[in-house]
Amino acid sequence: MAEFRRGAKNLRRNAKTAARRPELGAVISRATDHAIIRRREVMQEIDFAAQRRRIQQLRQNATQNLPGLLDRFKARVEAKGFHFHMAVDTNAARRIVIDVAKRHTVQTVVKSKSMLGEEVGIREALEQAGIQVTETDLGEYIVQLNHEPPSHLTAPAVHLSTGEVGEILYKQAGIGPFEKPEQMAVAVRQFMRTRFFNADMGMAGANALIAETGAMLMMSNEGNIRLVTSLPRLLVVLTSVDKLVERMADLAPLIRVIPKNATGQRITNYCTVLSAPRQGQEVHIVVVNNNRMAAAGDPVFGQAIRCVRCAACINVCPVFRTIGGHAYGTVYVGPMGIVLTNALHLDPHARMLSDACTLCDACAQVCPAGIDLPGLILHIRSSGNPRLIDRFKAWVVGMTYAGAGRFKAAFWALRLFKRLFAAGYRRLWRMLGWTGRRGVPRVAGKTFDRMWDDDAKGD
Amino acid sequence: MEDINLFVPCLVRQFLPEVGMATVQLLRHFGYQVHFDPAQVCCGQVFINWGQLKRAKKMARAFLRTFEGPALVVGPSGSCVAAVREKYGLLDLEKAEFEQWQDLRHRLFDVLEFMQQKGLKVRGRLDARVAIHRSCHLLREIGLDVVESDLWAGIEGIRVVYPEHMAECCGFGGVFSVKMGEVAAGIGRRVVQRLVDLEPDVIVVPDAGCIMQVRSVLDAMHKDIRVLHPVQLMLQAING
Amino acid sequence: MQRAIELFWERFTGYSGEVILCVSLREAMQRTVALTRKIGTDTVGLSRHVPVPEALSNAGLHVMHEPPTQVDDVPVVGITAPWGLVAETGSLVIHDHDPGERLWSLVCDVHIAILDHPRIFNDLDELFTEDSAHLSTGLCLISGPSRTADIEKKLVLGMHGPRRVIALIVGVD
Fold it and tell me: Predicted ipTM?
């Protein structure tokens, strides 16, 4: 774990390293292409624009009224016998969960994948308290075995090839050795069953919290969330305040759009609406804030809190598709990661993440909550103090561009330089930052202005 | 003959002048009187993209002065045109400038968009397999899909191919290409490889920055495939 | 209704679920017995919501109601009675708060779902605006066998839940 998530500070270095591994980009873009193609097919079944308007509206209503919805949700769930806890931040969330576990002398936990769990580092916290935690989602289990964080919201092991997965399962868990994904999945199922049956505590996240009824939506394809929430007698649902929606009716567009957008699947295989504690089960709902309530009221970043974590923006992001999730150094990655990390102040160097964007707008087109991701990234770029080197570069270009005369003179000089020092010309571009396995831009022998004048004379 | 003020983006002016001249010739072909004011420099997109809004504002002011009405303004760059139209709002312009901007927004066009809107059709012949890269800002901000558009309808012999599953950014991204050079190159290699895999005679790219990026990547791949702006290809078709 | 069933059929089977339309509950129970035998077992986990359970025991099947306490005691076949279906998403609607419905739709290799005159919802909006008890007691939409694509996007069925889901539907033709 140590070498990952060192924070956004190391983004440029990590990104450079990742970009030098074309096989990484190949695996990730292959996997995300698959999701993109299937998304396009399945979206033909619905009117995405109309559903997007509904989701944007319902998420906007919710994020603008979080305190009210939270009160209603709390009242509802407590009336039904759930235990409700509010956690202001990461530390509070960890403390609450560990207290619950300690009170029940929990030794083993089966856990389903949750980004919030990653955000508050709950697995590590439980492990430090001497509790064994098993990630039950296949991809998440693989990255747990490999001692690394997930590299993608919905596909945690997307950066690993089948061969690498087989090796990890064999070396770290003695499963296999297998070559085929089917064999690996069957073996993990067998192995995991015992853990499910014997676990002292289950831990799950939630996709939505419904204020009107005090119900929770949970979606999974593998069925692990149903096992996690059904078998152990003690269950902790670790979720965050931005998952609140007002009404049951809000679930329809969410269930309809999130899986289609995320992976191109019509619906997640199991969509559970958990409405009351199950017989003989003690359920604790821990709702984490971590700056969300404040961010929801921010005139600029408020819209970021509408995010429904579908990860479609990540799939289409050219930067993510090339460097993968780990290089960001943060829990949330890709376009929504850049924005959320800034909006929630999750990293002291969050602003630097805004470098990891070509402003191509692909993310904005797929966002089901209508978040202006490129606009927000641009906003982040233009706020605060840029690095000295960037300020210097901008100053140089600024001076060059400060008037037509200077502009022409500067490029005249560049042209001369190129003619005199071919190798130096190349080096100059590299110094400017035009690096990587590319040739350098060739300044034209004749400018447009010259061509225009020649053309006029010719007439 | 209607007058057009030519907007020549800085990269076209210094790196791809042939794209600028092809634009001129194409507009003349359709009967427009084209004017070029060499006092223009840059629309300011580079600084907006950089997050340097104060510098961008200076550029924007100069740009607005250069292109004061009422003539139409046309240039070969969806990206620059989109920046002027959509991003000047970030610059906190003073009232008079704001009004200049509002006026300019509605008579500033990318050359391909202009052709579409005016229904200008190129008729000609070009026997070539053409791989199209759909540049992001033209596609997503201007809303012109170079593949789906009928720009090619009047050209006989042309075979248009493109990466179908998505229009992925070439990795140029303005200052991104010098801030995260290695990543820009990595994106470029993946995306350009897909164009190369289509085995085209020509690669067509409708924005200057993207042309520079695609050419640079092809250089490193030692691939000798021509990279042209659509207007260059159209001119070839017209001239047979 | 015809249209809704067709859409359900197309989408549920499109995601590897199996559908058998039965003319009567009697036929559904006979088919359940036959399927169970064909799978090669005579023990089934049975939800208390399944109608005429005696049809199974009379046919010689050993019926389990209570949850198994250890892994080895889980039967191969689990039988439940979902109360509705959603055409839009090709989903069975199950009463998730009921321990038997939940358990036997989840832990077995094969899940047989008997839907006797189920409520039919054209789409998710109908289901979630429906103002009735099921919204307060919890539900689960099941749209085929358990699945994963976590290893290089390769689809594998039967990850943590059933490998096969067979819906026997009575009274919809």
Answer: 0.96
